[in-house]
Specification:
By secondary structure, the protein is an alpha+beta fold. 44% of the residues lie in helices and 38% in strands. It has a five-stranded antiparallel sheet. The two termini are 59 Å apart.
Length: 243
């Protein structure tokens, strides 16, 4: 009698165990199938903004017979240029390079030391409207080189443009997804994941023609013309949409 009861309990437990095993084996398959029914699409957005700031790098270069001589002269002229720039309250003023190098004369297969060249370069940022006048006055103050002039938008304008670019990128991704779902007669459901690939800061706009003109022009009563341009901010977003 006891053996029959025990056997009955064992038999009744078997279907439950088998059912649990089957559910455990099928559930991951269902989950995987559901996960696979998604569309991944990337969108891009652009926003063009006006450059309002000039990023300038200029310097003082002096040649002389002795290292001490050229270093003292560079220091004197550099201090004059820096003091002038500070008086004009330019932004992000900093020293970007200090250099001292020997100069040689090569004749009859011989190398002869004939002197030294010293230079000091600084960079600063100012508005486009003020840049031309400041460059001309910096030359009067002692600057002998204008190494580069590039144009950028303000940090606030770039940050605002990055948000707009990301918004446009999101709309672009959704438009692409809707086109695909429509072509395949599928029903779009939820956005299951969003990946922001970034909103790329714009590359400074470099003006070679303006640089050469300011480098070679004589200082006159009229300030050197400084004309900026536009910068493009790009954003990219990837969406995963279920269907």
């Amino acid at each position: 009698m006891m053996s029959l009861v025990r056997k009955s309990h064992w038999l009744s437990a078997v279907p439950i165990a088998v059912g649990m095993m089957s559910f455990a084996m099928i559930s991951p398959a269902f989950a995987q199938e559901k996960l696979m029914r998604t569309l991944t699409v990337s969108g891009r957005g652009f926003e063009d903004i006006q450059t309002t700031l000039a990023q300038v790098r200029l310097g003082v270069e002096v040649q002389g017979k002795t290292a001490n001589e050229v270093q003292q002269e560079v220091a004197r002229k550099s201090n004059s240029v820096v003091n002038f720039l500070k008086s004009r309250q330019v932004e992000k003023l900093e020293t970007t390079g200090i250099n001292l190098s020997p100069r040689y004369d090569y004749a009859n297969n011989r190398q002869t030391l004939i002197g030294y060249t010293a230079s000091n370069t600084v960079s600063f940022r100012t508005s486009n409207e003020r840049a031309g006048g400041i460059l001309d006055e910096a030359v009067r103050a002692g600057a002998t080189r204008i190494d580069s002039v590039s144009f950028v938008a303000s940090d606030a304008a770039i940050a605002a443009a990055q948000k707009v670019a990301l918004r446009k990128a999101t709309q672009d991704a959704q438009t692409q997804a809707d086109a695909v779902f429509s072509a395949l007669n599928l029903t779009r459901k939820d956005i299951v994941s969003v990946q922001i690939n970034g909103a790329t800061p714009p590359t400074p706009v470099f003006r070679e023609a303006a640089l050469m003109q300011m480098r070679d022009a004589k200082v006159s009563a009229a300030p050197s013309p400084v004309i900026g341009g536009e910068q493009r901010v790009e954003g990219s977003v990837t969406l995963q949409i279920s269907y």
